[in-house]
Amino acid sequence: MLAPEPFFEPRGTPFSEYHRIKALVELGYQIDLVTYPLGQDVDLPNLRIYRCLRPPFVTRVAIGPSFLKVLLDLLLAVTAIRLARPGRYAAIHSHEEAGALGVWLARRLGIPHLYDMHSSLPQQLANFSYSRSRLIRRFFERSEQAMIDGSRVVITICPALQDTVAATGAGERAILIENVMGGDVDSATEPIPVRARWGIGTSAPLVLYTGTFEPYQGLDLLFAAAARLAGTHPEARVLVVGGKGKKLTTEIYDPVADTWTKVGLTEIPHSDAEAIVLTDGTVLLTGGVGHRIAAEIYDPATGEWTRINDMNDTRYRHEMILFDDGKVLVIGGNGFEGLLAETELFTP
User: Is the domain of 167 the same as that of 205?
Assistant: First the structure.
């Protein structure tokens, strides 16, 4: 498997790569993952991680096209070519732009190639304002077409990409596996203190959002959706929590005034965490990639976050249920060893 990203990092494509690998090893396949020299190692059975050479002074890779990614992709190619011996592999599974290398290696070895298409390469030029050059765009278009044509199967992660592949005439070889968050939202009566603190009516909805706040994740859609509340639920509020690295922002959205107000920073970064309003009006935030065992409490009266005792199990993408007595049941999610069956009870 060729993964031209820092693996593992809590962002879109590495999440997909992780779950693709997890599904394959659970089916009994041995996976050799060739990836960038950055990222967190993961412990999965039948997985071996091969990292390419790291250039001096490189400590992070920004999302989107860059000259650094070109250099790292070349170094990744060297590592992959060194491993690609005849008879060693049954197939090559490539993500993103590594599909070009994967198609060439698969033809050389006479084995099938699977292209995991997480985005349209020409569209990335516009999304990240990398270049307006028609020549570069044409190169990206031809490269993407070659990767689609040279693949036995193309996996797409959204209907728009599925349509893109179908438009090339390869729709019968395309399989849609959407990146979606699972889990239901349990309704509970939010207590008066948090509503009174922010001027929210007792019957108005309070929406909690958690994420890494990367621009490419469609934050403009979040803001537009929040703004529409002014017409449908003018008394509603949106509590935004999360960030990555130094992005520990918490904000409240007022749809009537169409304004966001910063209300304090979490003590540590959270991504794919879960939040719930407690009976005393405070907000409990638990887990998340990077600090999966951590828990914090937000007090709307002071606008401050406070770190509390860690959970017993590391987890993210889990569920929380608030009981009438104020206790919170934390259920399942993903941990270091995969999906969790363990539950634990939080007592304020």
Answer: no
